[in-house]
Amino acid sequence: xxxxxxxxxxxxxxxxxxxxxxxxxxxxxxxxxxxxxxxxxxxxxxxxxxxxxxxxxxxxxxxxxxxxxxxxxxxxxxxxxxxxxxxxxxxxxxxxxxxxxxxxxxxxxxxxxxxxxxxxxxxxxxxxxxxxxxxxxxxxxxxxxxxxxxxxxxxxxxxxxxxxxxxxxxxxxx
Length: 174
Fold this sequence. Notes:
Protein name: Transmembrane protein 18
Keywords: Membrane, Transmembrane, Transmembrane helix
InterPro entries: TMEM18
Number of helices: 6
Distance between the termini: 82 Å
Region (Disordered): 147-174
Largest sheet: 2 strands, antiparallel
Transmembrane segments: 43-60, 67-85, 105-133
């Protein structure tokens, strides 16, 4: 048996994952990646513009659950189709870009498409969760108010009460 502790095993696995990501990306740093992108290219500007528009639509419609759900569904479908979109982009990049951004590892799709979409999807989910919490709190306050009203109405009108002398009388609490 190896004398490898759990911490050394974790460091080894993390090191292997980081090495494979670095080899797959063929980039040594984020600045190399950012420097390799032609920011004036219409394809890149179109992707950034689409993301900006989606973020603005999500912000403007933040209180409309139906629109938020539709946006979230579209973002999820695009993220699920990212591998196929990357393959399509790698095969047809000459039609819409001046250089091939689509590597086999999908770094471009992750950084420019899926990453921002996942961030937006998380913002939408957090917003939906906060609205759900507020709605639940409102419902619980309404239920507590209804219970208090029911208790007050039950206490204010009591049935006939028999006195010690055996006679009955109506009693009302104000």
